[in-house]
Known about the structure:
Elements: E1 16-22, H1 33-50, E2 53-59, E3 63-69, H2 80-100, E4 109-110, E5 128-129, E6 136-140, H3 143-159, H4 174-178, E7 192-193, E8 207-208
Antiparallel strand pairs: 1-3, 1-6, 2-3, 4-5, 7-8
Helix pairs in contact: 1-2
Amino acid sequence: MTGRKKLLKFGNNSYVHFVTTGTYENLSYFRDTECCRVFLEELEFYRDKYNFILLGYVIMPDHVHLLLWWNKTEKSDLNISKIMQGIKGTTARRIINLTTSGRVEHPLQPTSATNKKSTRSHKRNSKYSFWRPGFYDFNIYTEEKLAEKLNYIHHNPVKAGLVSVPGDYRWSSYKLYFGTSTLGESISSPYITLGADAPRYPGVHRFVEMVR
């Protein structure tokens, strides 16, 4: 467990990215455990490579939500497009390879003519598409909005009818906040304040410590 770090600071040039990206034609690739493991491995790899802070995540069957932050003054050359290109590109290549080799049983969709430009980051397998082009990036400037989005992603599996309570879902950061998990190495962050939304999480103090 790491020691106390500085709190996140919010401002015009310091904000959290709430990122959403989905699979090609909304196919449920992430119902497969191996596909989820591949995504988490690449998420951790690029977190370490670019040294951004991973505040939360959920892997749904056909899409992913992420909460990311980094000091934009210290890392002025880093941007969300660079991060997502890396994560999506290597994830696609690996999962397509697993599928074509028969290790993952899931039908691959041929890349359409309109989608070819979006597959440049995994062009070695451009015959197939794994992700939808692009991603949605919502910028968070307050602790209250951060808590709201964190609450949203943790309850996404419940809303989708996949589990009854957030803690039962394997592929989210919920247990890294409020319980034990074998995926602790997939998340790292400073302490964050939950502000007015803290009561939504029973037994949690104002500061939540996340572990590496």
